[in-house]
Amino acid sequence: MVSFSSRKRSLRLRFVWFVLLCLFSTPLFALSIDVSGINNPVAPNGFTYYRIVVGNTDGADRTNVMVTAPVPEHSFFSEANALPATDGSCSVSSCQFGETAVWNLGNLSDGDSKVITVPFRVASSAPADAELALTATVTHDGDSVGQSATYTTTVKVDPVARVSLSSKKQVIESGATSRYEVSFGNISASTLLDAEVAVTLPADVTFASASDGGTLSGNTITWDLSNLSANAGGKRFFTVTSDGGLEDGAVLAFSSVLRSEGSDVAQAKESNVVRNNVGLTLDVTTIGDRSQPDDLIYYRYVVANKGVTDLADVTLDMMVSERTVFQEARTAPVTTSSCSISTCQPGEWGSFAIG
Fold first, then answer.
1. What CATH number did the domain enclosing 140 receive?
2. Of the candidates 129, 156, 183, which is a domain's last residue?
3. pLDDT tens string 289-304
4. Which domain holds residue 241?
5. Beta bridge partners of 7
6. pLDDT > 70: what percent of the chain?
7. Highest taxon of the source (predicted)?
């Protein structure tokens, strides 16, 4: 009896130690990473845009932060058109399938964040329904394994619809109310039946309002579009309030989808970074957002320093979207970038030296 009791106690102690070991060996990740995308689905020879957001909410500065991303099959991108540019890790000026793009971001202070924007070109030979999964991994000194995130874009030979999701501000404060816009369009020759657009909210925000009868169920806002005619489109708006007490560097990810008869026909994702007491702000307004081919669309960018410290060497970078171009000489002020020709093409960046 004594021997059996001792053995039973020994097994119980081992079980407790095993549970404690499992609990205390769970890794606490220092850096967060999110990958979002625009233009999903994408046609062969078209552009799809990925944005990688890295945030530090660890309470400690991190050194030698590096992001790596293998190039998905059936796609490539120009290293010079990524912002920031890669460290020259690809064999030629364009990163091809089978190569891994590398961004050495240096040190990332507690509460800081970094954003990488990459315009990928889809190969003209890409087959229908091919999935372009971009997986980005962030590492730093002391963590060689890192954290990863993935966003997948699907190839469609003839996409039937587009949806985009954008916020008024890319950097938001904790406890602040922010406004978002969902744009959608039917680019096919047929009516999309029983159409609806939906947005899924992250856990760290509270729903405030939605335009045009949008309804909230759980963490999803849905707008009933009824039947969406060929070449028709529209916009919907919603506002949310981020939770108070969110740490600087936190990343909030929103996703949107356009459906027809219960099937997804277009998707998009948007990410915001939390940062309090931001002095430098950027506001964008558009004139002529509904235009015909060969028409002009006018964008106005307002940069303001609302802080108490003078800022030097401020630069505004603007990436040219698909199916648009602009002439560098016709901007005011003139850009300081060097596009491939005098007219900046899709995927290229126009840079403005603010001062």
1. 2.60.40.740
2. 156
3. 666 777 777 888 888 8
4. 160-276
5. none
6. 90
7. Bacteria
